[in-house]
């Protein structure tokens, strides 16, 4: 009987939408929006890079890199390990700057020597 839902108990539950996309995590909504955009761009870039790596593997095998062939590709254990390492390097290179300590700058400070004339507008 096609389409019949199983009577077996399962652990699935209904989807509960979170409102994390409305949460303010950083100091301003603008900083949060920029962070979300940057994280989304990094994720999209990694997907493109991963698909490119698969395309290169398919080309080595003399197989056309169609969307179906790329989606169906199963990497070897060695490729998976190498790609994980490359992903970690990518994340470190592109997103590690987000972990550095911030220093709030109050403005430019020009060291002045004793008895020097005050700065004037030019």
Largest sheet: none
Compressed to H and E, one letter per element, the order equals HHH
N- and C-termini, Cα separation: 86 Å
Report helical residue fraction.
40-55%
Beta strand %: under 5%
> How many beta-strand segments?
0
Low-pLDDT segments: none
Tell me the radius of gyration: 26 Å
Helical segment tally? 3
Shape descriptor reads elongated
Overall mean pLDDT stands at 81
Structural class assignment: mainly alpha
What's the short story on this structure?
The protein has three helices and no strands. The protein is mainly α and 122 residues long.
Give structural notes.
It is a single chain. With 122 residues, the chain is mainly alpha-helical. It has a domain at 25-95. It has helices spanning 29-60, 67-72, 77-95. Helix 1 (29-60) runs antiparallel to helix 3 (77-95). The chain is elongated. The protein starts with 28 loop residues before the first helix and ends in a 27-residue tail after the last helix. The model has no long low-confidence stretch (mean pLDDT 81).
């Amino acid at each position: 009987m096609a389409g019949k839902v199983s009577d077996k108990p399962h652990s699935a539950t209904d989807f509960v939408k979170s409102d994390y996309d409305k949460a303010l995590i950083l100091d301003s909504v603008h900083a949060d929006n920029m962070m979300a955009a940057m994280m989304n761009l990094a994720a999209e870039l990694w997907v493109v890079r991963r698909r490119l790596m698969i395309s290169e593997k398919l080309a080595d095998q003399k197989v056309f890199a169609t969307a179906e062939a790329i989606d169906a590709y199963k990497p070897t254990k060695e490729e998976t390990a190498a790609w994980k390492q490359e992903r970690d390097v990518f994340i470190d290179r592109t997103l590690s700057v987000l972990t550095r300590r911030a220093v709030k700058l109050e403005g430019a400070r020009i060291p002045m020597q004793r008895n020097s004339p005050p700065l004037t507008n030019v």
